[in-house]
Specification:
The protein is built from 9 helices and 12 strands. It is of the alpha/beta class. The chain has a single domain, classed as Alpha-Beta Barrel (TIM Barrel). It has a 6-stranded parallel beta sheet with strand order 6-7-8-9-10-11. A two-stranded antiparallel sheet has the order 1-4. Strands 2-3 form a two-stranded antiparallel sheet.
Length: 254
């Protein structure tokens, strides 16, 4: 197979909400793409008058297999994002001994009955959006005697198909998080609309940045902004993103 071409292994069947099919990206392509993503971040930060060191790259490995993860690890990645907690747990269990410094961030919507999985192994959760889920995570983290870094998800675009709190609900929700000592608040997270219109994207990210500034008066821990993906990370960085979640630009198309 030519260098840089994605391999597809397995059947497209689904089990317990995650695909059995696994994509793999050659190690050289992963390394090259990571370097390109880092350069994009550095350039965008400098153009925005920001220090590139203030913007963290969070590679997202969903649907990609262990070989691709090994390649990312070899290229210096120590934290990976996953949308599905059971997929992340499967990868964690398979690679924990081999890649001991690798940590996991769950960045997708989480049902309360899956909170126990996150509590067992994840270090970050980027989609907290209800007191019910916060309570369940607190309970499970108590059992595991662990803490969890969390970002509160905001539905800044107001799209009915998206999860997250409405902007008007966010500050009050932040006030409740002081009751959950196992949850370490790190900031806000959002997903922008699927559009190439930079004015629309910028407005969405700006709303969350301004909301973050307001929440700092309630909880000074909420400094982070997890926003921006492969297609719109430059706009997100211009509007203040501190973490950009990049998948396809590193691992390839899904």
């Amino acid at each position: 197979m030519p260098e840089g071409q994605t391999r597809f292994r397995g059947s497209p069947s689904y089990t317990r909400g995650m695909p059995d099919a696994v994509l793999e990206q050659p190690a050289a392509a992963v390394s090259t793409n990571l370097e390109a993503a880092r350069k994009r971040i550095d350039r965008a930060a400098r153009e925005a008058g920001r220090d590139p060191a203030d913007v963290r790259l969070l590679p997202v490995s969903k649907t990609f297999g262990n070989d691709s993860i090994r390649a990312a690890y070899a290229a210096g990645v120590r934290l990976l994002g996953e949308n599905l907690v059971q997929e992340a747990q499967r990868k964690h269990e398979a690679l924990a001994d081999e890649l001991p410094e690798l940590s996991w961030a769950i960045i997708g919507h989480l049902q309360t009955n899956k909170a126990r999985y996150v509590a067992r192994f994840a270090t970050e959760f980027h989609a907290l959006d209800s007191t019910r889920l916060a309570s369940m995570l607190q309970r499970r983290l108590d059992i595991e005697d662990r803490t969890l870094d969390v970002y509160v998800q905001v539905n800044a675009a107001g799209e009915e198909s998206r999860y997250g709190l409405a902007p008007a609900e966010t500050v009050d929700f932040i006030r409740t998080l002081g009751d959950y000592d196992r949850l370490q608040l790190r900031g806000l997270m959002t997903m922008a609309p699927f559009t190439d219109d930079e004015e629309v994207l910028g407005s969405c990210f700006r709303t969350v940045r301004e909301l973050r500034d307001a929440t700092l008066e309630v909880d000074g821990r909420a400094t982070g902004l997890s926003m921006g993906m492969s297609a719109d990370l430059e706009v997100a960085i211009r509007e203040g993103a501190t973490t950009v979640r990049v998948g396809s630009a590193i691992f390839g198309s899904r």
